[in-house]
Task: inverse folding
């Protein structure tokens, strides 16, 4: 691990400008096509995603509580954003201003996230259990595939629901537009193959950049700039500029202001909650994951990061942008490319602004099918078969909760999906013997073993829903003392708590303290997975 933590502020800007500038540029190359693709898939138009990333870089960098994260639009919010715009289109009163009404929702959600940060709601990152969160992400992946694979194949579908779009996938393969599908298929193949190339040189080239380098010439070869038809096996297909990205001539023309006239409608309230809650969960989870990748082991200030995200969303919504989060893929790329401070995020925003301000016409050559292929690839990674196998490895219970979350999310929406997963997990805990009295408040006896060590004896049950209280008790122990956490009298220790305990032990070890997990000898694990749930043997 590096010895000296990079300086923050202007001192950090000067000291790390070379590393942060290079990382910011490489992240920009990844972000450029993804931001436009996410925006188009969300029903916001391509510029909305660029506005969000520009604000996330240039503005939010100065407020962020997670210095290594990249702020911008995320594929995980596509189903909510698209659903929001479509819901307003269904109402005759808002059909003509659906996009503007959706922007008002983004602004309101941003204000709510600012309140989350001020009220120190960053602690909610510790409440949501593993299986429902992973189920939510997998469901998002399936929803992205359901919407984008048709675009990658050059087919327009009539279905308005996720289930309907999933059902139409075979039909879209049968009726694909061959030349459009070739662009989409080659793009997808590049994204699949490049991570598997062992060459260090090839690994440094962002796959989305290679996709653009191949897809744009293919689009020109197939003459997508001109409206025309072609025949393939006696079937006529259409090609034209509508299959390419379309941008306004300048930034001023691209700015769209929100319409707050329906902000208190039931549709607005529903999506304000969805954007604020799901966006916050995803952002906190990403920031938490990046903490583990940061070579300097800096810890994110989750409350400050929620505040920063809220400020960013409020600003983005006011000019036509999508909601933003601390995005995991671009943030990971930032760490891997040697970014050292929040200035890497700033530079990525500067590069995006430069492209949008100086050469927006160049973006018009990008085929939509290539962007759709990038999102299909992202969706598959979120809903990879490995995720299902991983949940089963942890336990059948985790897989069941995971599947319930996915099913309810696809049939209903993300909010009901995560609620269903949490409720099912709580019911399972009750069936397994966790008393209702400790579901949300842990029963812990605190005692001194000696002058240097404190024992925390957890009684009844240690589960995800009472972990926040347990964490506060752990944090209340003086920083000079070691901790033994004793589960010998706990009937149940769930997977989420076991995972948190191992993470806490690693954090203690990094600062020279000892955190000992004890009293599990008589407990039976659900599987051989290291952090599987434990039940006290009868």
Result:
């Amino acid at each position: 691990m590096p010895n000296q933590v990079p300086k923050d502020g202007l001192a950090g800007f000067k000291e790390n400008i070379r590393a942060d500038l290079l990382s910011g540029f490489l992240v920009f190359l990844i972000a450029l096509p993804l931001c436009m693709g996410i925006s188009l898939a969300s029903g916001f138009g391509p510029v909305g995603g660029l506005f969000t990333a520009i604000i996330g870089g240039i503005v939010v960098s100065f407020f962020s509580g997670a210095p290594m994260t990249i702020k911008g639009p995320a594929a995980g919010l596509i189903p909510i954003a698209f659903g929001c715009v479509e819901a307003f289109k269904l109402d005759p009163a808002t059909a003509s201003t659906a996009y503007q009404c959706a922007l008002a929702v983004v602004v309101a959600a941003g204000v709510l996230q600012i309140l989350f940060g001020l009220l120190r709601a960053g602690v909610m990152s510790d409440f949501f259990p593993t299986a429902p969160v992973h189920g939510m992400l997998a469901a998002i992946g399936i929803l992205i595939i359901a919407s984008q694979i048709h675009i990658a194949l050059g087919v327009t579908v009539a279905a308005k629901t996720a289930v309907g779009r999933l059902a139409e996938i075979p039909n879209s393969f049968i009726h694909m537009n061959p030349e459009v599908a070739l662009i989409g298929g080659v793009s997808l193949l590049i994204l699949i193959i490049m991570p598997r190339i062992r060459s260090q040189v090839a690994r440094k080239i962002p796959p989305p950049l290679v996709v653009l380098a191949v897809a744009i010439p293919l689009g020109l070869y197939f003459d997508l700039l001109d409206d025309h038809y072609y025949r393939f096996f006696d079937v006529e297909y259409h090609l034209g500029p509508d299959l390419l990205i379309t941008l306004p001539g300048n930034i001023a023309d691209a700015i769209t202001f929100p319409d707050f006239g329906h902000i208190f409608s039931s549709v607005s309230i529903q999506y304000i909650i969805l954007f604020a809650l799901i966006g916050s969960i995803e952002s906190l989870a990403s920031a938490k994951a990046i903490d583990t990748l940061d070579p300097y082991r800096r810890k994110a200030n989750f409350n400050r990061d929620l505040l920063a995200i809220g400020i960013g969303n409020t600003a983005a919504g006011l000019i036509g942008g999508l909601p933003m989060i601390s995005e995991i893929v671009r943030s990971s790329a930032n760490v891997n490319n040697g970014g050292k401070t929040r200035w890497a995020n700033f530079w990525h925003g500067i590069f995006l602004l430069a492209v949008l301000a100086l050469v927006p016409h160049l973006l018009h050559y990008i085929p939509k099918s290539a962007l759709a292929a990038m999102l299909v690839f992202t969706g598959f990674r979120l809903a990879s078969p490995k995720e299902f196998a991983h949940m089963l490895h942890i336990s059948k219970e985790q897989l069941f909760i995971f599947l319930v979350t996915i099913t309810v999310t696809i049939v209903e929406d993300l909010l009901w999906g995560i609620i269903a997963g949490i409720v099912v997990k709580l019911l399972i805990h009750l069936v397994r013997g966790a008393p209702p009295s400790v579901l949300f408040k842990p029963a812990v006896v605190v005692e001194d073993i000696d002058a240097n060590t404190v024992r925390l004896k957890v009684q009844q049950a240690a589960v995800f829903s009472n972990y926040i209280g347990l964490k506060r008790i752990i944090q209340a122990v003086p920083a000079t003392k070691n901790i033994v956490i004793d589960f010998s009298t706990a009937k149940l220790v769930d997977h989420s708590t076991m995972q948190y305990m191992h993470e806490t032990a690693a954090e203690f070890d990094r600062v020279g303290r000892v955190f000992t997990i004890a009293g599990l000898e008589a407990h039976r694990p659900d599987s051989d997975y290291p952090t599987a749930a434990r039940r006290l043997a009868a």
